[in-house]
Structures are given as structure tokens and as C-alpha cells.
TrEMBL record, chains A, B:
It is an enzyme of class 2 (transferase). The lineage of its organism: Bacteria, Bacillati, Bacillota, Bacilli, Lactobacillales. The keyword Glycoprotein does not apply. This is Fructokinase. SUPFAM superfamilies: Actin-like ATPase domain. It comes from Ligilactobacillus pobuzihii. Its cofactor is Mg(2+). PANTHER family: FRUCTOKINASE, TRANSCRIPTIONAL REPRESSOR MPRA. Its EC number is 2.7.1.4. Belongs to the ROK (NagC/XylR) family. Keywords: Aminotransferase, ATP-binding, Carbohydrate metabolism, Kinase, Magnesium, Metal-binding, Nucleotide-binding, Transferase, Zinc. One of its GO terms (molecular function) is ATP binding. It catalyses: D-fructose + ATP = D-fructose 6-phosphate + ADP + H(+). Pfam families: ROK.
Amino acid sequence: MLVGSVEAGGTKFVCAVGDEDYRIQDQIKFPTTTPKETLQKVVDYFLQFDIKAIGIASFGPIEIRKNSPKYGYVTKTPKPGWEDTNFVGFIKAQLDLPIFFTTDVNGSAYGEYVMSLLANEKIDSLVYYTIGTGVGGGAVIGGDFVGSVGHPEMGHTLLKRHPDDIDFTGVCPFHGDCLEGLVSGPTFEKRVGRPGKDVPLTDHVWDVMAYYIAQAALQATLLFRPDKIVFGGGVISEPVLQKVRVEFAKILNGYVSLPDLDKYIVMPEVKGNGSATLGDFALANKLLRE
Amino acid sequence: MLVGSVEAGGTKFVCAVGDEDYRIQDQIKFPTTTPKETLQKVVDYFLQFDIKAIGIASFGPIEIRKNSPKYGYVTKTPKPGWEDTNFVGFIKAQLDLPIFFTTDVNGSAYGEYVMSLLANEKIDSLVYYTIGTGVGGGAVIGGDFVGSVGHPEMGHTLLKRHPDDIDFTGVCPFHGDCLEGLVSGPTFEKRVGRPGKDVPLTDHVWDVMAYYIAQAALQATLLFRPDKIVFGGGVISEPVLQKVRVEFAKILNGYVSLPDLDKYIVMPEVKGNGSATLGDFALANKLLRE
């Protein structure tokens, strides 16, 4: 039995077909253009397969409340042309299948949650942050997503500013120096005039970044007390997380007991940016079981 | 059928007996002295009644993981004499009843959650903060508490400092200027030399307080997307929350859509500091149903 995954990003879409063991049987990537053109490619792709359900992990914000007339829509996105797009409706009109619709980070969170279960970790809850072009987070508790009046937007909390970074105004168009405004990929250009991949880890800017990312981990820790926190996205690497763990230990100051930080603040277990695809497969299967 | 409630604070204990409609039938208060003396008073009080279960909402930190050998303990509290106290064990040794053991703020969160349900509000999740001598928070999602590796400690996240408060070092012995270090009751003495109750709301210090409390609401909003956020504790009043809502609207900047803020950021619905007692009754009854 096959299911489909749509990882809908602002730059590209990744569609995949998986079997009941969550193995990828086929995959396609294409750039995100207009909603009509892009979503038609999704439909045309899946029409080639005998899939039974689809999991969609989408850029946002999106409407996930089933009782909303706008359920299944991409809502107030700054992405040109996509505001108020009936994503689920477009797909359903041509593919009458059960669809699980959630955010990109929720999809990744679920993929990492499932991966942990498959690895026989005793895990009840997990928080997933992406630190990339944008910053966002999702949470799974006991197999369910967190969020009643909408999905989390963990990338926009405010932070204690690093003393060596006081004058940086941040890049978030909504909040200036919120988490996303301080640690998203584009902050490198703004702070040091070149992309993050060209900034060596010995540069002090990485200490500043680690201090802020550690505060995101602190928020997730103290509000959720999750079993683990996963960081993905283009800004993150294992050496960066090593710095984050050091800063995290400093600001937590032993206040609550936690698992070994090397196992608590971690990179995605699913390789090749595949967390969301795995999550989508699992969510599609979950729909079919219910 | 009767159940018991223990609201265990660092200064005083409030024990109560309630019926199946959560109505208080009897209540007693006494100061918190040594663990042995205080907990024996709890036992002696309940021995007078034919209660079937007990809900305990305790100051912390406490061990709530059932699989821990220290389950039911008050753990690393700075409260003299109480560190490593087997709270649940002491009670169970003399009263062999089902006991639900959770934090004070979780108890209050649950009481407010139940109160909302009784008022026929369609509510799935709720966050409760207390801003008093200490600062803490608890969350209920779908009738369950949040927290896998322990209970939340929402009072110790870091915040963006108010420009007019940069030099204040904060009062938290663990973190200096964390949320508790910036807005707990004792900060008034430290900032303006008198207790908060003597500081008129027109004093600028309240704007600073509101800015920080609004950041707590922002964190809860963006990480949980709850149906509502309740603020209790000695620092909070409706006029203070009016200031908090104004600051919250400014820093959120319309980023996510929310219920009317007057119904979203609210005082406890249960009057007379009774949220935790109601929560305890409901949790005791929940135990008996399970």
C-alpha cells in the first residue's frame, strides 16, 4: 500500500511516494511557482500512483483548524501569489483521498518522533526547530501536535540580547529582533556581509548565534519539558549544536535535570532533509488507521 | 462521595474536602513548618473525613515521573528542610488512597481548565502563570498536563530587556534576570524600595513589568497556541493585565490571529485563589474514574 508526501516549501516542492514501511519508492522535486501551476504538478505526479492517502507539510502560515471555513488554506504568507490559497481543496478536487495537512516543521517533528520510536527510544514528546531562511518550530506530545487556536510559531519569541550584538536590529519584517530576526540565515549577510556557509565557526558571530539558539532550546525546555529537541535547517550543523549546548548549559544553570545534552539537543536523525517526508508518510498512514 | 485537596505552598498549606460537584465542604489552612509536622497535619485533617482520593498541588520542584524512584518527592527546593521530602509516601503510609500529585501551577491550570468546561467554553488547552513571590507556569492540553521529563518551569526563560530597565540585575538566585528574576513580587522592593501593592499603576515600573509579562504570554502563545492564558498570583490584577494586553498586542504585531485579548489573557475564573483546590478535586475524581 502506497501513500504520498508533499513537502511544500517557499522555494521548492518535494513530492514522494512511500510504502507502508515508510520507504521512499519515488520522489520528485520542482520549484515553487504560482499556486495553480505548482499544485497541478503535485496532482499530476500523484495521479501516476495508486496512493491511498497524502501527508502535506507546508510552509505557512496555514489554517489547520478543521472547523474553519479556511481549513486547508495557506493564509497570510508574504510569498507572492500564495496568500489565501486553498491548498487542500485544490488537491482534493482532483484526488479524492484522505489528506493530513500540517506545517513543514510539524511534519519534520513528526518524522523525527516516528524515527525515535522506530529506534526503540522511549519517547513521549519532541520539539523540532528549523533554523534556515526562516525559523519555526513544531511539537509532538504523545503522538499529537501542539496547538489549539492554530499551529505554533516558535520562531518569533523575543530574546535576551547578547551584549556584543546590542546594535543589530534584526531582520524579521514583523518583529525586528525576534528569534527569526536574530538567527535566520539572512542575518549573516546583514551582520558580516557574507553567507553563513562562508563564516568560519571561529568567528564570534557564531557565539552570538549559539547564545540565541540556546534560548530557543531553553524556552522549549521550560515550557514543554520534552524528551528531546531537534534542530534542523541550513544554519545548523553538529559543530554549531556543540556551541549551542555549551550556551544552553550556562543559561539553564542546572535548574532542571535533563537527559545528557548530546542526546537532548540534536540534529535530525533522518538524513538528507528527509524528516518531513517520513513524517508525511506516517501521518498519511495514521489517517488510514483512524 | 468526598475527595481531598492539598494546596501545598512554601508559606502555607490549604487542605480542603470537596463533593463530587467540586464544592468545598470543609477547609483548613496552616503554616508550612517542617515536613514531618506539616504533612502529619495533612494526614490528621483528612482522617476526619471519608474521602476516596486526594489531589495534591505542591510547590516544587517535585518529581512527577511515575517511573522514578523519587516519584512523589519534593526534590531540590531551596525551602529549608524540604529538600528530598517524600510527600506522597508520607501521606500514603497513613492514608491508603489514590493520590494525584502535581505542581501548584498545574493544579491551578487544571482548575481553570475545568472551570472553563463547566462554563461551556469550547476549550482544548490552557496555560496558567502565577506571578507572585515566585513565577511559574503550567499547561493543560486536551485534559492532560504538559511535560515528559518533568514539569514545566516557565518562570525561568530569558527575556528581551526593557530599555528603561537595562541596569536592573534581577532577583533570581539561579538566573538573575530571567522572567522570575524580573517580575516576581520581590522585584518591587529591589527596584523602587517598597512592595508592589504600594506602587501605583501610574508608576513607570508597571510598564516595565507589563512588557515582561507580555513576553511570557508571547512565549506561551507562539509555543502552545492555547485557547487562553490565565495569570494569577499577587502581582496580577485586572488593571495590570490591561497593560499586559497592550504590550502583548505591540510585540505580537498581528503575527497570528487570536481570540479577543480580553478573553485570551485573563485573570482566574475561580475566585478566592481557589483554582488549585478546584483542580485538585477534579484530578482526584479523574483518578477515581480511571
